[in-house]
Amino acid sequence: MTQQSILLTGASSGIGYDAALGFRALGFRVFASCRAQAACDRLIAEGFASPRIDYTDSDSIVSGLAAVLDATGGTLDVLYNNGATPVPARSRICRVTHCAPSLKPMCSAIRN
Fold first, then answer.
1. Pairing relationship of beta strands 78-81 and 92-95 according to DSSP bridges
2. 85, burial (CB in 10 Å: exposed 0-12, middle 13-18, buried 19+)
3. CA distance 73 to 25
4. Which domain does 60 fall in, by range?
5. How many CA atoms lie within 13 A of 24 on its CB side?
6. How far is the C-alpha of 15 from the C-alpha of 59, rounded, in Å?
């Protein structure tokens, strides 16, 4: 069976970090993204792939997603949009083929 991949945004702490640990324990290939490069470096030291994705920096979104797609051969199984979400209940998890409207900018660049 092929290892499934997940891109988590806002994975530097809290729910995002816990989700990254949990998905890794389930056998997923986890891309744990953060706004700050120092947080990405810490996650890389913990064994995660950690692209820098900051919602206020469109270049970081494009380059971070490109790095993930390059690493996975152009596929992504799950996107968990946790970053920049002030209320945990508003976090979203989606199969890339069924993208929530608020995630269209990220999901539209992902090819299955």
1. antiparallel
2. middle
3. 22
4. 5-107
5. 17
6. 25
Considering only CA atoms, which of 60, 64, 28 is closest in space to residue 47? 28
Residue-wise pLDDT tens digits, 52-77: 998 888 899 899 999 999 999 998 99
Is residue 112 in some structural domain?
no
- Looking at the domain assignment, is residue 52 inside a domain? yes
Rounded Cα distance between 7 and 96, Å, is: 10
59 phi and psi angles, rounded to 5 deg: -65, -35
Structure tokens at 101: 């409207």
Cα gap 24→62, rounded to integer Å: 24
Structural domain tally of the chain? 1
Read off the amino acid at residue 32: A
The predicted model gives 33-44 an average pLDDT of 96
Query: Is residue 76 in some structural domain?
Result: yes
